């Protein structure tokens, strides 16, 4: 189902393919953890120059580490702290070109240089965030934001 040849189009076409693959993976599966595990694995395979991809889930008022691909990570992040907590607090995607310039950045992996965080909101409730780190400055752009928000929307539709 997944091969390098699946991603031979434009960036836009490749994102559309990965979103369709994700929808096929989670179709008929209601377990959130299973779906998030497959989501992080699929994005890890699809995205280049990243060093961490995964989810933090809202539990008792804070973000708690969920399924991910990468090095061990911070387990709990308060809402409003770091890039993830800020995205959660404002319920908007955070696109950070240089994490070292982000006030209050939480360094779980010293190699991370840039980051994108997409909040997961369903029926007005914040469920968590999708967090992706890169060891490259300015790795993520508005195109990544657009399609990663669509990826998260596909997840929300299947909840």
From TrEMBL:
For the keyword Transferase, the answer is yes
Checking Gene3D superfamilies in the record gives: 3.30.450.40
Query: What sections of the protein cross the membrane?
Result: none
Which InterPro entries does the record associate with it? GAF, GAF-like_dom_sf, Phosphatase_reg/MetRdx
Residue ranges of the GAF domain?
Answer: 31-157
Q: Record's superkingdom?
A: Bacteria
Q: Which residues form a coiled coil?
A: none
Example GO CC term: the record gives: cytosol
GO MF annotations for this entry? Answer: kinase activity; L-methionine-(R)-S-oxide reductase activity
* Keyword Iron belongs to the record: no
List keywords of the entry alphabetically.
Kinase, Transferase
- Please report which protein family the annotation says this sequence is part of: Belongs to the free Met sulfoxide reductase family.
**Protein name in UniProt:** Histidine kinase
Naturally occurring in which organism (per UniProt): Tumebacillus avium
């Amino acid at each position: 189902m997944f091969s390098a040849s699946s991603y031979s189009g434009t960036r836009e076409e490749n994102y559309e393919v990965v979103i369709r693959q994700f929808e096929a993976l989670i179709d008929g599966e209601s377990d959130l953890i299973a779906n998030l595990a497959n989501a992080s694995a699929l994005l890890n395979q699809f995205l280049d120059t990243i060093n961490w991809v995964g989810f933090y889930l809202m539990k008792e008022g804070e973000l708690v580490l969920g399924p991910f691909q990468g090095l061990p990570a911070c387990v709990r992040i308060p809402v409003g702290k770091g890039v993830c907590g800020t995205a959660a607090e404002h319920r908007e995607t955070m696109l950070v070109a240089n994490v070292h310039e982000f006030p209050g950045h939480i360094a779980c992996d010293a190699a991370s240089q840039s980051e994108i965080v997409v909040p997961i909101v369903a029926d007005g409730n914040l469920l968590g965030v999708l967090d992706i780190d890169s060891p490259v400055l300015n790795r993520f752009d508005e195109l990544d934001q657009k399609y990663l928000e669509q990826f998260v929307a596909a997840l929300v539709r299947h909840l």
